[in-house]
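Example record

One chain of 191 residues, shown exactly as stored in the release files.
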Amino acid sequence: MSRIGRAPIAVPPKVQVSWTDENLVTVKGPKGELSCRVDPDLTLHLEDGKLTVTRPSDSKDQKAKHGLYRTLVNNMVDGVTKGYTKQLEIHGVGYRANKVGENLVIQVGYSHPVEVQPPSGISFTVDGVDPATKATRLSVNGIDKQLVGQVAASIRQVRKPEPYKGKGIRYAGEAIRRKAGKAGKVGGKKK
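Predicted structure tokens for this chain:
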């Protein structure tokens, strides 16, 4: 069996997991509720606070689905208990972000500020300027791991980090490969 697929999912006592005959899995917890449709060939078993996902055969397709859907259900359980956060940094002189109501307003060198509206279940926090890196830090919070990652990626797309000066929006801890730029002519004018 798949190493990832056969690992049991620990379900905390505060979390309720239920599924229908069509394998629509619903997970309810302290932070909210998530649901996902699992492949109908897979079966779910809940015993003693441990949820297991099993597959009917060892075909390549079944093995891939086994690990995938086990991970998706585990992400839902983690999301409704702890939640997910993606942190971003804005580097550049005059580049900044502010929170106006629920929306995020980003100023990154365009002639106008860019306003990002959060989808339902997503919230933004702006931590201000980090003194070590002089970068504005912001974070995307939510219970759906895929949605948090997608919103963070779309914010990064507003102004991707450029390789010459490193200005732009990047993930916290992301290393930007720098380029040297023009070297210029060496030795001045030729006669």
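Notes: The chain has a mean pLDDT of 90.
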